[in-house]
Give the backbone structure.
Amino acid sequence: MDHAKRDPISGQLTTGHEWNGIEELDTPIPRVVLFFLAATTLFAVIYWLLMPAWPLGWTYTKGLLGINQREVVTQQVRDAAAGRTIWTNRVANASYAEIAADPALMTHVRDSGRTLFGDNCAVCHGSEGKGGPGFPNLATGSWLWGGSPEVIAETIRVGINGTSKQTRAAQMIAFGSVLDREQLSNVATFVLSLSGQKLAATELARLPAGKEVFAASCVACHGQDGKGKQDLGAPDLTDANWIYGGDPQSVMNSVLYGRQGQMPSWESRLSPTDIKVLALYAASLQGAGR
Ligand code: HEC
Ligand code: HEC
């Protein structure tokens, strides 16, 4: 081993190791590496001393700071629950108008309402409440029973055509055996005209007769002007919102076979506060539009 040997090109000392004529330069480890090695080792030792670190069979080194993450999490959960209780209590005790006038409270209501709606209502009404065939869109501002939070809460509580004793009841009668074919075609065409749909000349000719049938058979529930009656849960036929469809075939089917949608009662499944939150949430959907 020739320790003193110098590399002729770089002029640096070699370690004396040699492989097939290739010699290793004696380059020291860079200081920065040593520095970080020392710094991280020091950090690790200090951290072991301060924080919970080493397992010791049944227990562990607790650390000088005495931090216990289980307690930290438990405390956070307790704080969150306390925070929730504060606002749920306010929702439970305040009137709908008071809650709606409190922006901070409404933020909680909307957050929690969205979750409750997703868990319980979205299967039928869609995640944004926009409904689908057979399930009403709750975001149009056009309501079967009324769109104030009080009325919506009652709808949610008792359901529609459901099994609860207090359920709201509404039925679109089947006119298939009450009216003849002509009358059915005429009144269905008249219904299409109510929402301003374009009609062919042959259809326009049916309108006067259709209007007569409507006046005789339909106004009791849908109103003189066809705008519906909320105390009967009968829909407005003059707007573009349809539960079952506004095309000629769907309207004809509604009149021929009748309709009776079912909305479950939630009284036994949701707390009064949850129903209140959902009613405020559903009421806030209107204006979100279609
Ligand atoms: C099993 C399906 C189903 C579920 C689940 C459901 N609904 Fe309904 N809901 C309906 C149907 C169907 C109607 C319309 C009934 C009718 O045609 O008369 C309706 C009607 C309503 C109405 C009346 C709308 C109006 O125009 O007056 C409201 C409000 C409502 N639902 C809210 C909710 C809320 C809130 C939930 C969740 C707690 C919910 N629904 C869950 C099927 C459902
Ligand atoms: C006894 C009350 C009642 C009478 C009478 C009645 N309707 Fe209805 N109608 C309803 C109710 C309630 C609904 C909603 C049914 C549901 O969603 O469950 C409805 C729904 C409809 C729909 C479906 C609306 C949609 O959004 O899809 C059409 C169309 C309709 N009625 C047309 C008529 C016509 C035409 C007549 C007369 C020939 C008539 N109705 C008579 C109560 C009535």
Summary: The first strand starts at residue 14 and ends at 19. Residues 69-93 form the longest helix (25 residues).
